[in-house]
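S1.2 Input.
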Amino acid sequence: MKIIILGAGYVGTELATYLANSGHAVTLVDKPSAELDRIAMRIDLRVVQGNPSSPVVLRNAGAENTELLVAATADDEVNITACSIGAFLFHIPRRIARIRSSDYLQEADEIFGDHGIPIDHVICPEHIATDDIARLIDLPGASAVSVFFDGMLTVISAKCQLKGKLIGHTYSEFESYENKASLLSVFRNGKYLDGFRGEFIAPDDEVFFCCQTERALSQLSALKPLHGGGREIAIAGGTHVADALAVRLSERFRVKLIEPSTDRALRISDRLYGSEVEIYNADPTSLEFMNEEQLQRSDIFIAASPSDESNIMASMLMHRLHNVRTMAIIRGEGYNRLAENTASEIDTVVTPNEATVSALLSNIRQEGVENMRLFRKGQSEAVELVIEGSHFSSRGIGRKPAELSLPSGTNMGLVLRNERVIRPDDNFKFQEGDHALFFLNDQKQVRKLIRYFRPRAFWIPKW
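S1.3 Output.
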């Protein structure tokens, strides 16, 4: 597929890298910069420098022969303009835009689509991050969470801890625990644990598993002790994510939103008038403020400021001084590594860029891919594949998983069949229309996986 990606920030670059590695012809467009030159040297793709919304620049990027346009710059208006030009001038069939402003998002159904501005899919990083954090709050102790099968299945990453119900037992016992989960992968000391089902569950193992969503909390308790979710949440704000999160969580919790900027605190107060959110104009790292407002009584502290450094510092202070469960939003790669080094003091590190890239990739809809999510800084990937074809045209249909030659480091989880989530047993054989969850330790293998399940050329799909 010929794809143009606008914007060479983290999201645009990661998306371009993934798609180029998957065999697509990718062109990355952004204003001239030294970083863009470095990207051109590092990744097998074409780079065009210039204004991403300029018709001349888009024409130079090959818009006349492009099948997909992804507008992922940090400027909503640039993304909207580029998609409009791509549709009206170059007739690009599919257009996806990254939109952040609530002014557009509140009216998205009326503004975007066939009847309005020609954008097929709108991706909002703030909404994606809010969804991620809300799921992590509901699953205390999970490092990462993603849903598949239209919400019926949850994939969870967690670090094992002492006092987990099955610590010291084998991983095969974890799968038989309530017989509801399927192990996807285990990493020990940062390395994949080959033959993990016969190994004993040990503290600090990083475990990926999937289960029916309503069973997630019970399965998680087998790996680590769970603590109550609590009722009070404090959020260090200053970003759209913090604002959206405060409003959403206030429906279930008592929420304190701490905004260091006086002007912004006043604007938020006006915008959130009538909500249950308590807004404070203060420095979230101030010890005096922490004591005055008794933040130590909070059950969860979420550091969602625009500064990675401030988020790490505030989380560490809350943990050290008050032993509060902490979550920190970290965007930069360097600070991500720093946060990992202080993992004992930051309970959960949230990386919104990874989730945004995953959402974009899911909307691009590669062959047979219904949904996907990147994990471990983009190194690993969970994929929901739709099994298509017939007994004659498909390598999978009518065969057992053990009979398939899947790419190295690929493990299969649960399957959705006729609206029921099932755990494959020794007699299980793939049927047309099955949705199967696969986990790849190396996401670069996803291209081989998709090709393996692709029906042979003579297959005619059912309409």
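S1.4 Remarks. The chain has 16 helices and 22 strands.
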